[in-house]
Amino acid sequence: xxxxxxxxxxxxxxxxxxxxxxxxxxxxxxxxxxxxxxxxxxxxxxxxxxxxxxxxxxxxxxxxxxxxxxxxxxxxxxxxxxxxxxxxxxxxxxxxxxxxxxxxxxxxxxxxxxxxxxxxxxxxxxxxxxxxxxxxxxxxxxxxxxxxxxxxxxxxxxxxxxxxxxxxx
Length: 169
What we know:
The structure is a single chain. By secondary structure, the protein is an all-alpha fold. It has seven helices and no strands. α6 (137-150) runs antiparallel to α7. The longest helix is centred in the N-terminal third of the chain and has 38 residues, at 2-39. The mean pLDDT is 88.
């Protein structure tokens, strides 16, 4: 009887491990599909796929960054109050990405450009002081300054931040 219980426990453990691995693999596949749809301009399918990726693995910061990227691309096709809602969604995703992995330099380097796009009022116009979104620019500025302080030892982060600070005027 003890052997049977031990074998059963082993099989249950293997099943749980396989199911967990499969769910993560599936989430990665959805993430890749989202990037493919985004590359061809199918924003709605990109959103659906990135949401499935997040549902499959809500602890992966890259997926939240991917969602923010989809939202920012969607800004190009949106106007007025809809843009505000999209920026709010993108900002929530960027914050979640950072929250899940606040000390990872790759995470920071990848979300800095997305914060820049949130700070811009109209993506179709040139960048700079005359095209800043009054609501989101301070949030971007705060994030860039905090990152510069926190990662002052990393030349790559500091250089990237300086690039976007210059673009923002």
